[in-house]
């Protein structure tokens, strides 16, 4: 079997992203995997399976414009390369669907879309526009099937949009418990980052738009704390780190904040192990959030927001769940 995968950002960490395991699983089962993606940390030398071919395409930091550039770049590279073969096409999230439909028309192979996130209609005007665009893209007849990580987005949107459950496969998210477990030591990371502080809060998520908004909420809450000198916050890095740094300066929190380097996905457990507290202030309706499963597997104290399926994944007895502010 040959698979063509379309995913906007890969890798988000030096040796892979949070879909690294999915790509690895593709490569274990397929003769060849061709991945179209647009994001590689500068200078990264990540490992990849021998049968994985990555076609780097253009993107932009400007919302919506980057989606247009991304899709046209895939079409351009497909025409340029000319010899891409596939038995199935997988697009992860809505932004690559136009390119996926183009590939389906040229390769004459089925298109399966993995539903990662859907913008909420009750939020900003921008989110309402994106929700309508997602509805338009997800309801294309050219899509042969869907993969959802839970029933949440199906019941909340896809079903109401007229998509039959027969076209949807539900595959719950999971993590590697050999990597994420309470036996992992975080001593090295604490020594590197904590300095004179006594407590370390870790937000080990890649800094793209949704996570940056969550990180800003954490910063604003932290700014209200009366005794900050004993605490340090460690954030993940990513394309919107510069925007988060501006907010850090505005709140005058520079001395309390640090950022992780781009590291292999296999190194993330060390950072979670170093934490005294893991805070996940979701500002969007998450499903079976991988970051939450990771924190739970490390048996760390967790504070999270009551968004999406978070209360179902972890209850009030296992974590502190907070009702988020209206954004």
Structural summary, described in words:
With 327 residues, the protein is α/β, with parallel strands linked by helices. The chain has two domains: 169 residues, 3-Layer(aba) Sandwich (Rossmann fold); 136 residues, Rossmann fold, CATH 3.40.50.2000. It is 33% helix and 17% strand. The protein is built from eleven helices and 13 strands. α3 links the parallel β4 and β5. The longest helix is centred in the first third of the chain and has 17 residues. It starts with a strand and ends in a 5-residue tail after the last strand. InterPro entries: Glyco_trans_4-like_N, Glycosyltransferase_grp1. It holds the Pfam family Glyco_transf_4.
Brief summary:
By secondary structure, the chain is of the alpha/beta class. The chain has helices at residues 20-29, 65-81, 97-107, 125-138, 152-158, 187-193, 209-223, 241-250, 268-273, 290-297, 310-313, and strands at 2-6, 32-37, 52-56, 88-92, 111-115, 145-148, 168-170, 199-203, 231-235, 257-259, 277-280, 302-305, 320-322.
């Amino acid at each position: 079997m040959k698979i063509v995968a379309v995913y906007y950002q890969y890798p988000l960490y030096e040796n892979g992203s949070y879909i690294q395991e999915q790509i690895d699983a593709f490569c274990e089962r397929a003769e060849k995997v061709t991945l179209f993606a647009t994001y590689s940390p500068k200078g990264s030398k990540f490992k990849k399976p021998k049968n994985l071919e990555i076609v780097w395409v253009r993107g932009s930091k400007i919302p919506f414009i980057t989606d247009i550039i991304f899709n046209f770049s895939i079409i351009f590279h497909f025409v340029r390369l000319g010899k891409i073969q596939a038995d199935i096409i997988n697009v992860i999230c809505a932004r690559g669907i136009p390119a996926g439909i183009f590939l389906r028309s040229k390769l004459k192979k089925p298109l399966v879309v993995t539903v990662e996130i859907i913008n909420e209609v009750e939020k900003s005007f921008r989110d309402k526009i994106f929700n309508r665009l997602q509805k338009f893209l997800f309801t294309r007849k050219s899509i042969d099937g869907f993969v959802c990580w839970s029933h949440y987005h199906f019941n909340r949107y896809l079903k109401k949009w007229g998509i039959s459950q027969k076209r949807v496969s539900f595959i719950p998210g999971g993590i590697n418990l050999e990597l994420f477990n309470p036996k992992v030591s975080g001593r090295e990371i604490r020594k590197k980052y904590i300095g004179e502080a006594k407590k370390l809060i870790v937000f080990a998520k890649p800094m793209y738009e949704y996570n940056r908004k969550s990180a800003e909420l954490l910063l604003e809450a932290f700014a209200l704390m009366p005794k900050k000198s004993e605490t340090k916050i460690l954030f993940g890095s990513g394309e919107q780190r510069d925007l988060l740094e501006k907010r850090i300066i505005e709140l005058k929190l520079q001395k309390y904040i640090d950022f992780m380097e781009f590291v292999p996905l296999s190194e993330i457990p060390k950072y979670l192990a170093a934490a005294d507290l893991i805070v996940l202030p979701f500002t969007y309706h998450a499903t079976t959030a991988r970051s939450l499963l990771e924190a739970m597997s490390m048996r760390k104290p967790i504070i999270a927001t009551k968004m999406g399926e978070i209360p179902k994944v972890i209850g009030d007895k296992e974590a502190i769940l907070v009702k988020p502010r209206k954004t």
